[in-house]
Design goal:
By secondary structure, the chain is α/β, with parallel strands linked by helices. It has 15 helices and ten strands. Helix 5 links the parallel strand 7 and strand 8.
Length: 337
Amino acid sequence: MSGEVSAAVVGAGAWGTALALSLANHGQQVALWVFEPELASTMRQERENGVYLPGFRLPGGVHPTADFGEAIVPRVTTLVIVAVPSHGLRPVLTRLRPQLEPDMDVILATKGLEGGTLMRVSEVAAAVLGQDRVAHLATLSGPTFAREIAAGEPAAVVIAARDPAIARRLQQRLASPTLRLYTSTDVIGVELGAALKNVIAIASGICQGLGLGSNTRAALIARGLAEITRLVIAAGGEADTLAGLAGLGDLVLTCTGELSRNRALGIGLGQGRSLQQLQAATPTVAEGVTTAAAALQLARRLGVELPITEQMHRVLFEHLPPAQALAALMQRPLTRE
């Protein structure tokens, strides 16, 4: 395998598996690092990720392995895509660090904020991998469901990096007839937009679970975008980023799409199920849960109001009934848009 595989995807959840499929389906040989050794073995034998992305056959160009040494090979691997849940990013990057060479590009396909430190994903990567790696770091985001990417349906995403030359190089590396990439240098805006849209999506699901209609959800999405934009500006990002794929595009998809894990969790909450029940019912992660806590702390640090995020935090961690959270939002003092 080492003689032909030049790309590695770290993380074999639905998103990581879909990215590996996308690369392999357009001619690249891809190592797919799987956290669970048993799952890696099953995937090699059955040529399917039956746990996280069932129904899609792994092409011959995807090589599942639980061994970092097999997945990332010196002088062979030139691109590493990290696609793990945000709570696992730091430990995975710590394991990954000895395998990286100075000229390897690293794409972060993780969405969320780190609890405790409140760091964005690229800040976590810089802290773990070293500031000398920042020049080769990029973030991938945009309105994508893993199953639709795996099925080869047309989609568009953003690749963000401080260095526009790095973003352009990776744009060319990942682009295919079904996946269009746009470049950005606003890493802050792209990463915060990717993280907070999951919190708003939980709120959108709650609206549906309460039996509310399109008016409510449209208002929620619009005001959600407004509060995400306030936080991005306060953190040093660009408002214009939130009008594009990594902002509005991803927000609308996650708040309305049938495949959204965060929206599904919100629907369950709105129907009266507990957070613990909903989390126990699925192996996948709804990133908006941990992000709600971190985003609220970050907003307070930066002096920004996030009313929807604050109410979601109360629902998730303070057992506030969802209907009361909605009422609290509607009863806020009247103001200008």
